[in-house]
């Protein structure tokens, strides 16, 4: 039996989706708005987002649209 490890960005994406569903943020808000909610953890997530080619001005909807977080 093989256990699949969930990529950290999948967990982050789910958390952000939950924030959108709760109407705390909107899909058309910029990614930088998440920084206000993540506090000390934000530097880690910002670094991850930048490594995947996101900018802090990209809409949150772009993050939610990612189907696979493959690192090459």
From TrEMBL:
It comes from the Bacteria. This is DUF4327 domain-containing protein. It comes from Allocoleopsis franciscana PCC 7113.
